[in-house]
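Sample 1 of the test manifest.
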Amino acid sequence: MLSKKAKYAINALVHLAKQYEKGPILISDISEQENIPQKFLESILLDLKNAGILSSKKGRGGGYYLIKAPEEVNLADVMRLFDGPIAFLPCVTYKYYERCEECIDEATCGIRQVFYEVRNETVEILKRSSLAAIIKKEQLLSDQ
Amino acid sequence: MLSKKAKYAINALVHLAKQYEKGPILISDISEQENIPQKFLESILLDLKNAGILSSKKGRGGGYYLIKAPEEVNLADVMRLFDGPIAFLPCVTYKYYERCEECIDEATCGIRQVFYEVRNETVEILKRSSLAAIIKKEQLLSDQ
DNA sequence: CGTATTTAGCCTTTTTCGAGAGCAATTTTC
DNA sequence: GAAAATTGCTCTCGAAAAAGGCTAAATACG
């Protein structure tokens, strides 16, 4: 399962993407409207800022805002930022590869093969799920 | 990522499946050959026994053995046993459904749609990955 | 300049995971 | 029936996740 951090991050990002280029949004607004504990949200937004996805402004009229285009932020990146690898096993991860300590022969490991396939399918779906794509899906759903 | 418990469980099950119907196997043998901490493995095997997948015999000549056919034990079931839901969000799980507390409208949630698709693909792959299927894959790999 | 607003950083608490120690219970064998 | 072999059970410990509290720093506005 996703960590709360990652889940909240995605919700906050979608929220900000809906108001892209409309100026800074208050943490407290996001917290209230998305039902995210405020203190927790603060550290999440800070992480997203340090990752170069958001920027912030202090003082009156301040808040957080998206600096990447909603088309360019996808769920795979956000999940990796907060929860690390997406794959189920370290030996099939893309950016965090590590041998399974207990593994005897990676080359002939049938378990690895299965999870390699799972990872590929998963990452493919997540990569094409940008903030823009998610917002589009929501519009389609509410137009029905 | 999989918990160590689930990963070790899968390795132990594949080990036992390779010796299906050849009598009880010692915990210590599995522990050594699969590089799994023995005490940890003990509790894992016990869980698998309580789940009706393994059975055990005490005393000399004792150990653990598979009571389900290797074709009938798949990775989705084992993962759910140890790590709970396979899906990334509680609102798209099959057997453990729960509303996301912070969610505003599940019916129009674009995030949910994405993770619903991921779950479906993932579970499909894991369901068809039985112990027998994994062993077959390993044989194909080592015959190359 | 000073005050209100808002983000930034640090410290504490509670729960769960990974691992191991030690002892108890059960079965076989002699 | 005693001893050896093996599984079964209960604690404990450290690290990480999920919060929440409190104070500092920066900025805007009158």
